[in-house]
Each structure stands twice: as C-alpha cells, then as structure tokens.
TrEMBL record:
Belongs to the class-V pyridoxal-phosphate-dependent aminotransferase family. NifS/IscS subfamily. Pfam families: Aminotran_5. Catalyzes the removal of elemental sulfur atoms from cysteine to produce alanine. Seems to participate in the biosynthesis of the nitrogenase metalloclusters by providing the inorganic sulfur required for the Fe-S core formation. The lineage of its organism: Bacteria, Pseudomonadati, Pseudomonadota, Alphaproteobacteria, Rhodobacterales. Gene3D superfamilies: 1.10.260.50, Aspartate Aminotransferase, domain 1 (3.90.1150.10), Type I PLP-dependent aspartate aminotransferase-like (Major domain) (3.40.640.10). InterPro entries: Aminotrans_V_dom, Cysteine_dSase, PyrdxlP-dep_Trfase, PyrdxlP-dep_Trfase_major, PyrdxlP-dep_Trfase_small. Keywords: Iron, Iron-sulfur, Metal-binding, Pyridoxal phosphate, Transferase. Its cofactor is pyridoxal 5'-phosphate. This is Cysteine desulfurase. It catalyses: (sulfur carrier)-H + L-cysteine = (sulfur carrier)-SH + L-alanine. Residues 5-80, 119-334 form the Aminotransferase class V domain. SUPFAM superfamilies: PLP-dependent transferases. The keyword Cell inner membrane does not apply.
Length: 352
C-alpha cells in the first residue's frame, strides 16, 4: 500500500534545504554568546537565519525573536496584556484570552471591536479560513499562512506575529515572535539576556539554522506557484466529493466554503459520523488526515472552531480535515476521495 500524507496543517515533511543547514550547523561547536571565533560562527548562523525568516515573511526591519514554538511566542506576546480572542483561535492563543469570546460568523470570520486589545489569527488550521486583519491589531497568529500565502508582515498592520518552523518544512521545536522594531515586551524567560533581552537561554542553533533555510525555500516555492497547483488539487478533490455525495442524494458540507481559504485546506463536516472514526478508516486505507488541530485532535471532543461558527455538537464532532502540500499528487487526492466515498456508502448501507 502506498501511503499519502495529507496533514500538512499539522506538520510538514522536513525540507532538504533545512536538513542540509542543520547538518552543517551540527559541526559548529561554539556558544553563540561567546566572543571567540567559534562563538561568532554560531552567532553568525543565527543572524543569517534571522534575516532569512524576516525576508521570507516580508518583515525586513522588524525584530525576529527566536523561541521554542509559536506556543511559547504566544505566551511571550500575550501574558498580562488582557487581549480579546475568538474561539476559532489555536488553544495556545485562546488560553490567554480574557472576557467574552469575539463573535464569529457561519463562515468563520471574526468581528473585532478593539484591534489594539485583540489577538486574531490570519488563517485557521482546521478550516483554512483567512481573516481580514484590522489595522493596529496587537497580535496575529501567522503560522498557517506563512509559506502558503504571499503575505508581508510589514503590511499586515499588526504589532506582532507568530510563526513556526515545522509548518513550512523546518524542524519541530523552533518558532519566532516577529514584532515591529522597538515594541516593548518583557521577557518571560529571564537569565542571560539572549534574543535582544526578550528570551533568555542558549539558542537552538541547529533548529534555527533549519528554520531559516526552510523559510527561504518556502518563499521560493510560493513565488514559483507551488501553492497555485495545490489549490487546483484541493478544488478538484472537493468537486469529486461533491459529485460522489450527490450520487447518494447528499450534499458536501465544507466549513468556511463561503470565505476565502488557504489553498490546501478542506474541512468536511458530516454530522453523525465521528471525525476520529473517519481518520482511522482513512489511515487503514493508506491516508494521513486528521479530525482537526493536531494539538487537540487526540482528545475526543467537538471542534471548538466549528462550534464557534455555529455548528452543533453532532456536526462539530463529525469533521475531517484534509490539508495538502506541494508533494501531494492528483492521484493522492482522487484515491482519498474514492476511499472516503466508499466508506460513506458502507455507512449508509448499514443504516438503511
């Protein structure tokens, strides 16, 4: 059985460019805080990666603070700020929100009253829905958009943004908080004063080097139209699902279909058919997909994102997320569509 990986919003395969940069960094022995030659070589790798991430994100002139993950970055940006958030946010952001959740419409779009006191993602990991960010926003989670959409931090109008290496072909365990130069933010990890005094601790030189190389390669892929091809595959996949369901007298329910979405994401809602069951059936058929955010899909519960969009618990528990990548083929998507439709027919026949 030839397996097909279609869970790119959870994590991405390590790029060859990132692997090469990481292997080279393993031979650099110095501590980047040391002033001798070995230390300076390690520091140079970090600064090279900082520039690569900034350029790829359109954040030249901004401060790029390396952290262990976007989750850590969210804590650094949000602790003590009293920010409003919506229930569509990743748990790492939602955990820091205060007050009533921001309103969300049926297509997953959020209404913001006070941008300066709000954190709002640019794109959702479960539905792919893209938000229109208001000017003056305090923080935006850019992890799903970075590398998939032609964005520039300097033009988004937000003070800070979160990014993560493993969402665009880099290693797990490294991310960055990007902020307008001069933004005053106290360190949560205190000690040696690394990362411009905003995040203490000896830097993960190997991971950071991989992040920089991955960001540069991801930007090149985007410029070459790789994600336009992915969008074509995604649209064809959804069309085949719609066609197959119509033959059964059903209609496909794609969460967020009325909004602008990431080019690779389909969130298929089937009330009464548990998302976890669908994932296991597709796994046995050779396909890696998910029932929602990888950070919470291991917990059997209704999707908080879909509930915020107005779906009831039965529907919010019956979601399947398919997220494609540049390595996905048309054959992969068509085989997945046929495998899913076959399982849907079996379920209908048993219920008849």
């Amino acid at each position: 059985m030839r397996r097909a990986y279609m869970d790119y919003n959870a994590t991405t395969p390590l790029r060859a460019e990132a692997r090469e940069a990481m292997v080279a960094a393993m031979d650099v022995a110095g501590n980047p805080s040391s002033v001798h030659q070995e230390g300076r070589k390690a520091k140079a790798l970090i600064e090279k990666a900082r520039a690569q991430v900034a350029t790829a994100l359109g954040a030249d002139g901004a401060d790029v603070v390396f952290v262990s993950s976007a989750t850590e970055g969210a804590a650094l940006a949000m602790a003590g700020r009293g920010l409003a958030v919506a229930d569509i946010e990743h748990d790492a952001v939602r955990a820091w929100g205060v007050g009533d959740p921001l309103p969300v419409d049926r297509d997953g779009r959020v209404s913001v009253a006070d941008p300066a006191a709000t954190a709002l993602q640019l794109a959702n990991s479960e539905t792919g829905v893209i938000q229109k960010l208001p000017e003056g926003l305090w923080l935006s989670d850019l992890t799903q958009a970075f590398g998939k959409l032609p964005i520039a931090f300097n033009w988004l109008g937000c003070h800070m943004g979160l990014v993560s290496a493993h969402k665009l072909g880099g290693p797990k365990g490294v991310g960055a908080l990007v902020m307008k130069r001069g933004t005053d933010i106290p360190a949560q990890l205190k000690g040696g004063g690394q990362e411009m005094g905003r995040r203490a601790g000896t830097e993960n030189v190997i991971g950071i080097a991989g992040f920089g190389a991955a960001a540069e390669a991801a930007a090149a892929d985007l410029a070459d139209g790789a994600w336009d091809r992915v969008r074509t595959l995604r649209d064809g996949f959804e069309a085949r699902l719609s066609e197959g369901l119509a033959q059964m007298g059903e209609a496909a329910e794609i969460a967020g279909a009325g909004a602008e979405r990431l080019p690779n994401t389909t969130c298929l809602v089937t009330p009464g058919w548990k998302g976890e069951t669908q994932v296991m059936q597709m796994d046995l058929a050779g396909f890696a997909v998910s029932a929602g955010s990888a950070c919470s899909s291991g917990k059997v519960r209704a999707s908080q994102v879909l509930r915020a969009m107005g779906y009831d618990d039965e529907a919010a528990s019956g979601a399947l997320r398919v997220s494609l990548g540049p390595e996905t083929t048309e054959d992969d998507t068509l085989r997945l569509a046929e495998a899913w439709l076959a399982q849907r027919r079996k379920r209908r026949d048993r219920a008849a």
